[in-house]
Structures are given as structure tokens and as C-alpha cells.
Amino acid sequence: MIRLYRRYVDKVVDAGTAADLFEPLQNAIELEHSTIPPYLTAALSMKPGCNQDIAGLIRSVTGQEMLHMCIVCNILLAIGGQPSINHMGFAPSYPGPLPMHIGGDGFEVGIEAFSIRLLKETFMRIEEPENPLPIRVALDMPDYTTIGAFYAALQKKILELGDAIFQPASVPKQVLEGRWFPSDQLFAIRSAQDAVRAIDLIVRQGEGTSTEPFEVKGTPAHYYQFGEIVAGRRLVVEPAGFAYAGEAIPFDPDGVYPLKPNCRIADFEPGSQAHVRITRFNYDYNCLLNALHHCFNGEPDKLDVAIGIMYSLRTDAVALMQTPVAAGSGLCVGPSFEYVRV
Fold it and tell me: How far apart, in whole angstroms, are the C-alpha atoms of residue 101 and residue 313?
């Protein structure tokens, strides 16, 4: 996964009470959310009927990031905290650093159409494990420390504080809806062992294990799914190890909408089609944040409302990506994911 400043890990290590973990867990919620807008934009930037394998792989990763956000919210609820989702600063301002300055100084993430460069230089850097396994077909990725240390420290501290920090009354407030996520992945957090098992899932889906690049048999972890797209081939097991040497994953550059990167509402003339559509997109995005905030603050049934808004957001995004920035520009409007008070 991503490197981050040591002080965020130290804050977990130095925690003496459950309340001391509220801020680190809120940071983790913001982190898990922060990857969703760039991943979702890349997936939706594929034109209908084009690059379907690639879009499907990125959508599956995006769905798991949503699951991870839900898991961390449930852990925070389980120890007496309250997730805060619909406030200024919850989502990063794109382009810019991700929460906790992950990736190090100078690492910024924007909202762009899909490209192999974006996948290799940004998405794979976000998901990079502590020790990437050797895969035939070198990807020339730099070496970083990772957020795996943050989650490992969190697990250790939760075990140290023990079951006493978990509040049984929190379980009805947790989001355990089985229709959207498997019940063996989004489950009630009642104890330290439950929390450790949930964090294991987050790390395994993002990084794989220390010996295999798969989260489960046949399904690569996020970093290696992105590696498949860069290499243009599925990851397979060979007698000598692992290789991007399986079924081809074709990429047609003409099958991607030519989005203007990092659009803002202020970029467009009020009353223009572009302004109307990007404003509508951001209204629905902030309605989604509101619904998720209520969902994780005592109204778990509102997950259905949030999922409904997400489908509306997808429709908004597709309409936006078919809207010219200006006549003759050759570029279309991209989502901006700006905070707007709704």
C-alpha cells in the first residue's frame, strides 16, 4: 500500500485508551475513501463497449475500497467513536496529497481519464505492498515504505487494549448489510479478534500476502490487478513463480473519453451545459457523503439510500464525460468531487 509519515504510526503505538484511536481510525476512513474518486473516474472514463476487462478490474478494486471504508467505520463505532464523513476536508482537494500525506512529499493524486501511465505511476504506487513479490515482466516500480505498518500497529494496539474497549451497544449501529458486501467480509466488530480479522482483510485485498499475490485463490490483490493491466496479461502461477503471462487484457486508447484532468465547477461559465452537469454531479456526490455520514451515525439502514445515490452519480459521470469542455477543444468534462454543502 502507500507510505506515510511515521508520526501517524507513532500516534497508534502511543495510544493508551480507545479514545486515542479515534483520530487514527478517522484518518484511515478518509484514506480508504480518498482512492475511490480517482479509481471510479478511471473506470467510468471507458467508452461504452470498450476496454471492458480493464474497466471491470478497476471497478472491482473500487468496490473493495468501499468495503474497506465500511470496515474501518464499523471498528471506530465498535470502540465508541463516531465517523465524520460529510464535512469540509473529508475528501482531498484533487489534485493534491492524499490523507496523512501518504506517498510522501510531492506525491499528488488527481482526477483523470484512464491511462497506462496513470495506473503505473499513481494507482500502483498507492497499492504497492511492503515487499512486492517478484513477477516476471518487471514493472520498474520504486521502493517505498508502506501504510501496512500503520494497519499492523493498529492491530497490535487493539490487541493490547483488549476486548474491554469494545462496546456491545455499538453493534446495532454498525453497517452489516449483506446485500452489497459478503457477510464474511463485512461483519460485526464485537471484539479485538474481530477487528484484527477485519484489518487482515483490508491488507490482504490491497497487498496480497507475503508469499502470494492473491487475496484469495485466483484473485490478485489490488496492486497485482493493476499490474495485470499494465502488463496486458493476466497473472498466472508458473513452476518458477508468478508471471503476467496469462490471457491477454487488450487496451484500446481510443476507447477512453478525452477528459480534461482535474476539472472544477469554477472552470465553466454559469448556465452552460458543462457547468450545469458538473454542478449536478457534485450535488449528488455531497448527497452521497451525507447519506454515508447518517448511515454510520446511527442509521445503518441508510446504506440503501447511499447505494441508490451512487448509481445516480454514475449516470451523472457518464453524461459529464460526454460533455465538451468547449467547442472545438477536443476535451470532455471530468468529475471534480468538490465539497459543496448540501
Answer: 27
Polymer length of the chain:
342
**Preceding peptide of 270 cis, ω within 30°:** no
Q: How far apart are the first and last CA of the chain?
A: 33
pLDDT at residue 136, rounded to an integer: 59
Q: Tell me which of 175 and 209 has the higher pLDDT.
A: 175
SS3 at position 99: helix
**Residue 281 grid cell:** 454531479
Grid cell locating 181: 458486501
Which residues on neighbouring strands pair with residue 233, listed in sequence order?
Answer: 248
Contact (Cβ atoms closer than 8 angstroms) between residue 32 and residue 68 = yes
The per-residue pLDDT for range 209-222, each reduced to its tens digit, is: 667 888 888 889 89
C-alpha grid cell, residue 294: 447518517
pLDDT(56) > 80: yes
Name the percent of the chain lying above pLDDT 90. 68
- Each residue of 83-129: pLDDT tens digit? 999 988 898 899 998 888 766 667 899 999 999 999 999 998 888 87
What's the rounded Cα separation, in Å, for the pair 157 and 195? 11
Q: Which three cell numbers, joined as nine digits, stand for 167?
A: 462496546
> Is residue 73 within 8 Å of residue 175, measured between CB atoms?
yes
- Of 311, 341, 263, the C-alpha closest to 40 is 311
Q: Is the pLDDT of residue 144 over 60?
A: no
Closest CA to 263 of 316, 340, 321: 321
- Sequence-distant (6+) residues with CB within 8 A of 225 are 57, 60, 61
Whether the model pTM is above 0.90: no
Let me know: does 187 contact 194? Beta carbons within 8 Å.
yes
| SS3 (DSSP) at 220 | strand
Interatomic CA distance for residues 31 and 147, integer angstroms: 10
Edge-to-edge strand ranges of the sheet holding 241-248: 135-136, 241-248, 233-238
